[in-house]
């Protein structure tokens, strides 16, 4: 059985030589309870080619893994699909070993690498810049480069191995999973992890993703395998993750309502539960999230897959509760498409939470639906019935 310590041949002469970060628990500000990987790939041909590198702290582990296949000093080409340090910060170390290697990157990629590694002797690095459609012959095989601007950095690109129909997709189609398994058909719930990854990293670039998928379609690429830079490799019907990206990027959610709230003394929670009950009574699926008791990264994934959501906060210091403020800052940055939102909350001697929540989202493309619900102190029977009626309306909107 393959172990994580060994390189793995994913196609003839094509090897996974990445690393597993078993202890990764936070990435880009969201929780990664299952750890992660930094994937790099080695193609052994007339020109030995390394696709991407890894995080600097794992550089020697990657080099040791490569050395079990070839002498790392014999690497001829390094493809830098992305400047971000989890993929590029091992470059200075690998170039100490493979001193004659040429680096292939986009023009923005070259600029970024020069800026990041100015103190690492990058002025002596041998670069060749590429753009969409450019090809590189490495012997019996040919690489095609595809720019992927803002997926999710300006320099991003993908590399296609023509003879083997493998797309080295860098940060697209990835997941954060630490596992000794390398393929999607060996890991349960991989689509769930891919959805969480998309929701928390790629949601702001939805329109770019749709255009990029069009570009891949126009190039007429047959894709038998997708090898991302994080997580497992898609070999079992890779079209399913491409189709999932098209759906997620479109912003078209399921007929479901998400109720997101925090509560100080239970009043806002009572409202949230009554709203959820109304949604259920309408015949629509509903999920309830307390902001301090749930992982925000999972919450964002659920929100991506719904059409309607409700936000509830108590008033504290004449404004929204601090957790709601932090969550809305995070949500705003992700810019989800085609979502409808309603607001509710409780207050004591003065309000302000709802006003601040509306202010926080007013310049987004989210549509505000239904009048906000405000309750002073503890909700009474009539207040809870009003919440229930709001839930029924939101359920109907989600199904419309």
UniProtKB/TrEMBL annotation:
Pfam families reported in the protein's UniProt record: Flavodoxin_1 (PF00258), ODP (PF19583)
Keywords: Hydrolase
Stored CDD domains: flavodiiron_proteins_MBL-fold
Domain Flavodoxin-like, chain residue ranges per copy: 257-395
InterPro entries in alphabetical order: Flavodoxin/NO_synth (IPR008254), Flavodoxin_CS (IPR001226), Flavoprotein-like_sf (IPR029039), Metallo-B-lactamas (IPR001279), ODP_dom (IPR045761), RibonucZ/Hydroxyglut_hydro (IPR036866), Rubredoxin-O_OxRdtase (IPR016440)
Chain segments annotated as coiled-coil in the UniProt record: none
PROSITE patterns: FLAVODOXIN, FLAVODOXIN_LIKE
Name of the protein in question: Flavorubredoxin
Source organism: Methanohalophilus halophilus
Gene Ontology terms for molecular function: electron transfer activity; FMN binding; hydrolase activity; metal ion binding; oxidoreductase activity
Keyword Hydrolase: yes
